[in-house]
Amino acid sequence: MDIVEIKNLTFKYPQQEVQNFNNFNLKIKKGEWLAIIGHNGSGKSTLVRLIDGLLAPESGEITVSGIKLTPESVWDVRSKIGMVFQNPDNQFVGANVEDDVAFGLENAAIPRKEMLIRVRQALERVKMWEFADHEPVRLSGGQKQRVALAGIIALKPEIIILDEATSMLDPEGRQAVLEIIRELNQVEHLTVISITHDIDEASNAQRVVVLDDGKIVQDDIPAKIFSHGASLVKIGLEPPFSEKLKEELVKQGIEVPDEYLTKEGMVDWLWQLFSKQ
Amino acid sequence: MGKVLLGRYVPGDSIVHRMDPRAKLILSFFFIVIIFLANNWQSYALLFALTIGSILAAKVNFAFFIKGVRPLIWLILFTVLLQIFFSSGGTVFWRWGPFNLSYYGLINGAYVFCRFVLIIFMSTLLTLTTAPLEIADALEKLMMPLKKIKVPVYEISLMLSIALRFVPTLMDETAKIMNAQRSRGVNFGEGSIMQQIKAVVPLLVPLFVSSFNRAEDLATAMEARGYRGGEGRTKYRVHYWQTGDTVGCAVFVAVLIILLFLRHW
């Protein structure tokens, strides 16, 4: 059964000329873990925001869990979807951990008695209950993302969308978050849609969709996609930081060496360039 | 940097800490009003007894209260001096031009000093024993009647609690930007006033830009989590009015009655 179905989607941002999506089609199966990869500006984030009704399409049809997305049904659709965003700090609404988990429940007008039970269960699930009265400043990025996940678990959605949710975390925090997602996907059969630049995260998926310029260029199991090796960079899995910096410097009209530089090599080259001027 | 917090809340588990924030807020206002009824030594002594009693009940270190007075000491001294030199009556000890030092002037100066100290002590007690968020909650509850005249009470209190939640986050960010700008050669807190003002610009601009980005992210995240205005939400955090709160109010009312009696001694 398809839990998300996108038919003939067309969309562009109001201030832009070019179409972000033109006649776009995608089906996502219930219980599936789908990774969406693609370089910056390929339309990954736009796509998931369209699915959650945070952006409105120009034309086309999006159906989530049997509900057709319209301005009237948008809140019903959102209640089926939990979203975790990139920046752990900018999605922490509550003054402390338990308040933040309760925020979504308060919005859904869940009675307080049930709220207390659900907040506790969700926090125990992500192993954050002992931090229930901690303020966000006292938490690491990974802990904050786990709290964000608890906020979603408490709402019992059918789909979890991760919009580069692990990209600002250290390796440990990233592992802890992925562990919880894996469990939710395998034990509770939640559908997972994850946007990522991280090869590890994408390899957890059952299916990988590569987006480029609003079009699906590849759609396959991870093993097949990753066998392309060197062209990974082209399809949007993270190139090393020093390479990205080089690219930006070229855009500024600065000449850079052709050979690959490590981070240390890049630092050396940069300060040498700076002291010459 | 992180220590300069609003409210300087000191966690604890005293009777005063456990009181309903609404009760504490109301009593603090009530106290500030009744201070102005005091007009003789007996009544000020009574109010001091009440304040000291409350402080003892809160089990908070007295040094915090002295610290609370310190930043306002110049304002207090200025007001007291005005009272001393410009009010007349009773025996005049000294006179020069418009200034005169009289018996009543001295008494009035002392009273004004007492008033300041009492108000500062009591409001410090409120902020020391009540978390900023609890004060925001109490304000929401107390503003509820304003809903009738279409004041968006829920939204105001959510704004307040989000603002409080982001204070430490933005302080961290300020510290980071300051360090980043220092490493680029900006001097903070050095040079003439003009130079110091100029040094603030490269601090404020990135801070503003990032605050707006944060606001936008936060709005999206809130919408994704089903926030659609304050109406029809349930509340996770609730406060219960307990016996202690009623007793507290009774004590303050009793003090008011004795105070009214002392006025006409």
Automatic annotation (TrEMBL), chain A:
Protein's cellular compartments: Cell membrane
Signal sequence range: none
All residue ranges annotated as the ABC transporter domain in the record: 4-238
Gene3D superfamilies cross-referenced by the UniProt entry: P-loop containing nucleotide triphosphate hydrolases
Membrane topology according to the record: Peripheral membrane protein
Pfam family, one: ABC_tran
MF terms in GO: ATP binding; ATP hydrolysis activity; ATPase-coupled transmembrane transporter activity
Record bears the keyword Lyase: no
Keywords, ordered alphabetically: ATP-binding, Cell membrane, Membrane, Nucleotide-binding, Translocase, Transport
Cellular component GO terms, alphabetical: ATP-binding cassette (ABC) transporter complex
InterPro entries: AAA+_ATPase (IPR003593), ABC_transporter-like_ATP-bd (IPR003439), ABC_transporter-like_CS (IPR017871), ABC_transpr_CbiO/EcfA_su (IPR015856), ECF_ABC_transporter_ATP-bd (IPR050095), EcfA_1 (IPR030947), P-loop_NTPase (IPR027417)
Family: Belongs to the ABC transporter superfamily.
NCBIfam families linked to this entry: ECF_ATPase_1, PRK13635.1, PRK13648.1
Protein name per its UniProtKB record: Cobalt transporter ATP-binding subunit
Species in which this protein is naturally found: Liquorilactobacillus mali
Automatic annotation (TrEMBL), chain B:
Topology of the protein relative to the lipid bilayer: Multi-pass membrane protein
CDD domains the UniProt entry points to: EcfT
Localization, UniProt: Cell membrane
Record-level Gene Ontology MF annotations: transmembrane transporter activity
Short name of any one Pfam family annotated for the protein: CbiQ
Membrane-spanning segments: 21-38, 44-65, 72-94, 106-128, 149-167, 240-262
GO cellular component: a single term: plasma membrane
Keywords of the record: Cell membrane, Membrane, Transmembrane, Transmembrane helix, Transport
Known partners and oligomeric status: Forms a stable energy-coupling factor (ECF) transporter complex composed of 2 membrane-embedded substrate-binding proteins (S component), 2 ATP-binding proteins (A component) and 2 transmembrane proteins (T component).
Function field: Transmembrane (T) component of an energy-coupling factor (ECF) ABC-transporter complex. Unlike classic ABC transporters this ECF transporter provides the energy necessary to transport a number of different substrates.
Assigned protein family: Belongs to the energy-coupling factor EcfT family.
Record protein name field: Energy-coupling factor transporter transmembrane protein EcfT
Record organism: Liquorilactobacillus mali
Gene expressing this chain: ecfT
